[in-house]
């Protein structure tokens, strides 16, 4: 198993955010975590990445390729982030630095792990793999030159340039129109088909139907249902899952 989360509990101050969260994800599958805003979906991803805010407290276990992640030092985490586990955030405009060209930003993670040799070639290939046809032109542009959908493709290129085993995606299509959303989801399926694992956070069961292999339903920091995508749609058991499905 690529990633195993067991009895994960998270507190922000006195607020109990995640309560006994347990799940796993293996190579070549997409796990969708679905639930309404504030249910704790993004906190699961931040816990995996070791990017929790100061003052938070975490208990339980997060194992990646059998190695325990909780308790790692920041230096140890830096060797994993980008190289083995990467993340795509919801709002690409907030993630991309307006002062640096796209090429520089895609290269940054690669250089951090592998050095400068071949960085440009890898960055251009990552942009092409993310569905950007005019990669050479986009490479030389600044973020403000690009549309929202193109910026999100750039963020996916940044997340995949080091060929990580696990990609975390936090509501990556929420701000995009339907046609661009479909293309981004197709890109995630292509990444999955190359043997990578993806954990995709969403509140949209339409997205779940499009890409998920398995589904985890989260409510108020608790898992209320967890099963394969066909069973979720054909035989939902928990009232909350039924409620979310009825909103489609």
TrEMBL record:
Membrane topology: Peripheral membrane protein
Pfam family, one: ABC_tran
InterPro entries linked: AAA+_ATPase, ABC_Ni/Peptide_Import, ABC_transporter-like_ATP-bd, ABC_transporter-like_CS, P-loop_NTPase
Gene Ontology CC terms, in alphabetical order: plasma membrane
Keywords from the named record: ATP-binding, Cell membrane, Membrane, Nucleotide-binding, Transport
Subcellular location: Cell inner membrane
ABC transporter domain span: 3-245
Molecular function as annotated in GO: ATP binding; ATP hydrolysis activity
Stored PANTHER family: DIPEPTIDE TRANSPORT ATP-BINDING PROTEIN DPPD, OLIGOPEPTIDE TRANSPORT ATP-BINDING PROTEIN APPD
Family per similarity comment: Belongs to the ABC transporter superfamily.
Annotated protein name in UniProt: Peptide/nickel transport system ATP-binding protein
Organism: Hydrogenobacter hydrogenophilus
């Amino acid at each position: 198993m690529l990633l195993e989360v067991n009895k994960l509990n998270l507190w922000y101050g006195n607020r109990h955010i995640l309560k006994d969260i347990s799940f796993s994800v293996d190579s070549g599958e997409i796990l969708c975590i679905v639930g309404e805003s504030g249910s704790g979906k993004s906190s699961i991803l931040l816990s995996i990445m070791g990017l929790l805010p100061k003052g938070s407290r975490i208990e339980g276990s997060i194992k990646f390729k059998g190695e325990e992640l909780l308790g790692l030092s920041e230096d140890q985490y830096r060797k994993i982030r980008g190289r083995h586990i990467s993340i795509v955030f919801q709002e690409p405009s907030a993630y991309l630095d307006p002062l640096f060209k796209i090429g520089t930003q895609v290269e940054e993670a690669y250089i951090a792990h592998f050095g400068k040799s071949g960085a440009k070639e890898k960055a251009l290939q990552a942009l092409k793999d993310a569905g950007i046809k005019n990669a050479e032109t986009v490479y030389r542009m600044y973020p403000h030159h690009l549309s929202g959908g193109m910026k999100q493709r750039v963020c996916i290129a940044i997340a995949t340039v080091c060929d990580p085993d696990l990609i975390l995606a936090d509501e990556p299509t929420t701000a995009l129109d339907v046609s661009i959303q479909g293309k981004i989801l197709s890109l995630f399926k292509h990444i999955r088909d190359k043997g990578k694992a993806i954990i995709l956070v969403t509140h949209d069961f339409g997205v779940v139907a499009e890409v998920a292999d398995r589904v985890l339903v989260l409510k108020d920091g608790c898992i209320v249902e967890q099963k394969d995508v066909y069973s979720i749609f054909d035989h939902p058991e928990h009232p909350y899952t039924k409620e979310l499905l009825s909103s489609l």
